[in-house]
Structure to design on (129 residues):
């Protein structure tokens, strides 16, 4: 599935640069480190890895962990359902980004001057019966 993302905290570029050890991320998310490992294994939250294989959680990952916890505890959604919600959210965000790209392209094309047509149309009357 790749890197999971949800919209919370997505716009702050400083949050993306900071990374946390699993113990710090667990504390920030209000969970046990083992829960983070389980979520990683299940593909719910996939943190970056160091060359030695250690997990490095971004602020975005921590926000996603909190959302997983909220969906599970407050909304009663099981982990399979949460994974599907994350997948669909990622898909919607990707499609929205593509729509923005296409809209920008359309606006760019509309802003360009259109060449005048030099096409010739020949009109012929229909045969009368």
């Amino acid at each position: 599935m790749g890197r999971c993302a949800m919209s919370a905290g997505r716009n702050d570029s400083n949050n993306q640069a900071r990374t946390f050890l699993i113990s710090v991320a667990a504390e920030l998310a209000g969970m046990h480190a083992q829960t983070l490992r389980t979520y990683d294994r299940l593909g719910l939250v996939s943190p970056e890895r160091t060359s030695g294989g250690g997990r490095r959680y971004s602020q975005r990952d921590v926000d996603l962990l909190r959302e997983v916890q909220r969906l599970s505890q407050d909304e009663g959604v099981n982990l399979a359902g949460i994974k599907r919600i994350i997948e669909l959210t990622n898909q919607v965000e990707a499609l929205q980004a593509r729509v923005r790209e296409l809209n920008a392209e359309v606006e760019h094309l509309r802003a360009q001057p259109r060449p005048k047509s030099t096409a010739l149309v020949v009109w012929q009357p229909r045969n009368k019966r």
Observations:
- The CA atoms of residues 8 and 66 lie 10 Å apart.
